[in-house]
Amino acid sequence: MSFADKAKNAAEDLAGKAKEVVGKVTGDENLETEGKKDQGVSDLKQAGEKAKDAFKH
Predict the structure, then answer these.
(1) How far apart are CA 39 and CA 8, in angstroms?
(2) What pTM, to 2 d.p., does this model score?
(3) What pLDDT was estimated at residue 56?
(4) What is the secondary structure of 1-57 as a DSSP string?
């Protein structure tokens, strides 16, 4: 996994967490759900990158 991919995935995860928190604080369930979804997508991308790395070695 390249450093750029790791950074991008970490940024997506952080943005998702921020959306989730803001949604909880403001009572915006849609924003909270969107934040959780963004975190899930980031997790899947990270898992895919790790699998690619495992097959390279």
Answers:
(1) 12
(2) 0.82
(3) 80
(4) --HHHHHHHHHHHHHHHHHHHHHHHHT-HHHHHHHHHHHHHHHHHHHHHHHHHHHH-
